[in-house]
Amino acid sequence: MSDTIADMLTRLRNAAAAKHKTVDVKNSNICQGIARVLKEEGYIADFAILDDGTKQGLIRITIRYTPTGEQVVREIKRISKPGCRVYRSVKEFPRVIQGLGICVLSTSRGVLSDRQAKAQNIGGELLATIS
User: Fold this and answer.
1) Strand partners, 110
2) pLDDT digits (tens, 9 = 90+) for 90-99
3) How far apart are the C-alpha atoms of 74 and 109, rounded to whole Å?
4) Closest by Cα among 75, 74, 43, 87 to 61
5) CA–CA separation, 98 vs 100, rounded Å?
6) DSSP assignment, residue 18?
7) What is the pTM of this model?
């Protein structure tokens, strides 16, 4: 597997659509950062690092739903891909659903949401948009 970020986002999208409570994804520093941002922004309930006996390990993500049972994550879109990287400055961040969604960025200070990156005035690689 060459794109662990796309695999993580696809697994999360599919598990939410199938109404699963948790989903396991491969562990990496960037996937941990994305899971942390999603938890801080309220798109997932929680995540935990699991040791499955392999060197890499797993991240178990607990998916969040509304009280009526609808999924909180409506759309996840991968922007920067291994074959075509997309970098943006602070002034060029896209507005996802008129500011209701978030962008996930990889910056020199780690994985941040667009709100956190604007507060710190740093740009970076635009990994995904989530609404």
Assistant:
1) 107
2) 998 888 877 7
3) 28
4) 43
5) 6
6) T
7) 0.93
